[in-house]
Amino acid sequence: MPSGDYFIPVGIGGFFAILGIILIVLGKGEERAYYDSLASHTDAREFLEHWPERPRVGAIKIGGWIALAVGLLMVVMGGAFWLWG
Hints:
Low-confidence stretches: none
Order of helices and strands: HHH
Shape: rod-shaped
Strand content: under 5%
Oligomer: single chain
């Protein structure tokens, strides 16, 4: 790989890693706000049992974990290009 080309996957990986961390934090905040609002209801069965499952609440968190994994893999790939390229 030509000199400096390893910066591209490292930069993209860093972007995805930062985006993943931001999405995880936002997802946890959304989940906390959702279940806190359920706790104020008189029927707290959904709050206690987390049933029925709400995929919307955890979707941002799951997307954050995926983005973080992709970002870390790209950073490792860029580091490998730098070391052995």
